[in-house]
Amino acid sequence: MNSSQQKKQKIFSWAVNLGAVILLYAVLLFLIGNGTLKRYEQGILMTICINIILAVSLNLTTGFLGQLALGHAGFMSVGAYTAALFSKSIPMADGPLKFLAALLLGGLMAAVFGILIGVPALRLKGDYLAIITLGLGEIIRVVIENLKFTGGAQGLRSIPKLAKLPMVFWITVCIVAVLFALIRSRHGRAIIAIREDEIAAEASGIHTTYYKIMAFTFAAFLAGIAGGIYAHYLGILGASTFDFNRSIEIVVIVVLGGMGSFTGSILAAVVLTLLPEALQRFSDYRMLLYSIALIGMMIFKPSGLLGTYEFSLTRLLRRIASPFTGRYSSGEGKREKLRQTEEAKG
Amino acid sequence: MSCVLKATDLGVSFGGLKAVEGFEIEIGENQLMGLIGPNGAGKTTVFNLLTGVYQPTQGDIQVDGKSILGKKPYEISQCGISRTFQNIRLFKQMSVLDNIKVAYNQNMKYSLAGGIFRLGGYWREEAQVEEKAHQLLEIFHMDHLADHVAENLPYGQQRKLEIARALAAQPKVLLLDEPAAGMNPTETQELMETIATIREKFNISILLIEHDMGLVMGICERIVVLDYGKILAAGTPDEIANNSKVITAYLGQQEEAAC
Predict the structure, then answer these.
(1) Structural domains of chain A, count
(2) Range of A250's domain?
(3) How confident is the model over B107-111, as a mean pLDDT?
(4) A45, A75 in Cβ contact below 8 A?
(5) For an engineered disulfide with B91, which of A30, A196, A208, B52 has Cβ 3.0 to 4.6 Å away?
(6) In a domain, A16, yes or no
């Protein structure tokens, strides 16, 4: 396949995905317009968006880079507080521009913390890294709780509620698109190579330290943006929200969705945000059912909902269209591949 | 013949243990050299020293006359030394093609932003690398496996893929750590041919660790024998085969004739 053909295919795939997103957006606007989605439902959708951003960003470090980090809530809180303090203190008309500026600032501040924490922490691996990020995440929370300008234990109040669902929807879409583009570039290959075999990656000329810190910082940046959205959605902030449990919640979404699958993270973020809401009728048993669902998942599909598989709308469309065009038949392609492997194994 | 890789008085000690001591080697352009020795002699340690995995505690290593001492493994790879590993280290979950592309990374220039927004030569460079990677796989007769996950390849193919990946880093010297380990005679024969092809097509020098004496004696021009971290002998295959010290190291001391 030559490159222009490949480019054409990619552009087609972008068009399909963009079309799907616009369709989703139109449905969203319609449902808000006719009053089906009230404040409560919109709140849930907002939480889903925030959780999606948190999960896909953590998936970059945990799923793709392969470094288990447990301090994501820490970066989220840095972003949340920075963004909130910015929009509270800057005399600028409330609006999308101010919101975006606050998010950007929150993200950048979280990225700075990402570098500060990443440089020493990423010398360690596996469980050691998990413990150190957990510790540093807690330190951020405790420091915020004891500082004056963050409002101490009382937290921040009357943050302008600038987060509107349509805007947050597009921010989420952009972040997911950026992560997909990143992972499919040479930088993404380097990141995955480090997960697969760090020694081999370094021997192949990959500057492992650089890529580790880069991915870690990028994830922190996105977590900061998620924090900023959270702050401008609730209007109040308390440091205790960003405790260890919050970090674990994000890890659970990533693991359940599948480490190394962005679409898996998105799916899991939706499911795990909706599940507690749907189980509200059984409020007494809610957390019990939630936990059982997680345990069952780990027993029957330990690689998560999607594993490392990425759902692709383009592929689905082709598969649906294949009986008519005859150009692409999924089963045959797979069987052909299998046959080749068998032959190669001889 | 100019010297591509040169190590002088190279040594490393772990605590009090001198794992390698006074190691010397000179590899000329397009030369194929063998490194042999009994188990635990320090052959792989030498490879780890040459590729920067361990920092030598004495001596110097030069590539094209420039010292690479103190450099990180990825920098040494960029200086032109590539290696394979004794126990295959592939990027298992990645496709065969992507395994190769990772090694081309160091010669690609587009930035992080370029990668995300598909700017600054993204399309051009990706297309070039795609092309190059396919060509490389073609040489190894593996192009039809390009889309397969590396983990699913049979053992012999995995070994070949690892060599191909090392070559993708465009080295001047290729270090092969027991490439024939675990292969049957047919596969070993095939491997010997592959190595010969590589030398011809890429015009590079090769340093080879191997236990398969047939292979080493068959293709190497010079052989260095290592025992207890020190060089026991160096010379042509014939010289080595008849060297009494080497025979002793491998087979043990001949008992004194009974009186």
Answers:
(1) 2
(2) 37-309
(3) 88
(4) no
(5) A196
(6) no
- Residues of A within 8 A of B50 (CB-CB) are none
Q: Count CB atoms within 10 A of the CB of residue A128.
A: 12
B258 pLDDT higher than 60 = no
Q: What are phi and psi of B181, to 5 degrees?
A: -60, 130
DSSP secondary structure, A221-264, as one string = HHHHHHHHHHHHHHS-B-GGGGSHHHHHHHHHHHHHH-TT-HHH
Residue-level pLDDT at A144: 92
Residue B233 lies in a domain: yes
Burial of B249 (0-12, 13-18, 19+ CB in 10 A): buried
What residues of chain B, 131 to 150, have a C-beta less than 8 Å from chain A? Answer: 131, 144-145, 147-148
What confidence tens digit (pLDDT) does each residue in B162-198 have? 999 999 999 999 999 999 888 888 888 888 888 988 9
Which residues of chain A neighbour B114 with C-beta distances below 8 Å? Answer: 185
- Are B228 and B21 in contact by the 8 Å Cβ rule? The answer is no
Q: In CATH, what number is assigned to the domain containing residue B47?
A: 3.40.50.300
Which runs of consecutive H residues, i.e. helices, occur in A125-197? 126-146, 165-183, 186-196
* Burial of A274: CB neighbours in 10 Å, binned 0-12, 13-18, 19+: middle
The secondary element (H helix, E strand) that includes residue B48 is helix B43-50
Which residues are within 8 A (CB) of A181 and not within 5 positions of it... i.e. 6 or more apart? Answer: B115, B116, B117, B118
Return the pLDDT at A199: 93
Q: Burial of A176 by CB count in 10 Å (0-12 exposed, 13-18 middle, 19+ buried)? A: buried
Q: What is the ipTM of this complex?
A: 0.90
A325 lies in the same domain as A228: no
**Segments in chain A below pLDDT 70:** 1-3, 324-346
CA–CA dist A235, A277 (Å, integer)? 21
Inter-chain contact B91–A201, Cβ cutoff 8 Å? yes
Q: What is the pLDDT of residue B181?
A: 86
Quickly count: other Cβ atoms within 10 Å of residue A9's Cβ.
Answer: 12
SS3 content of chain B, % helix, strand, coil (to 5): 40, 25, 35
Handedness of CA A150, A155, A160, A163 (dihedral sign): positive
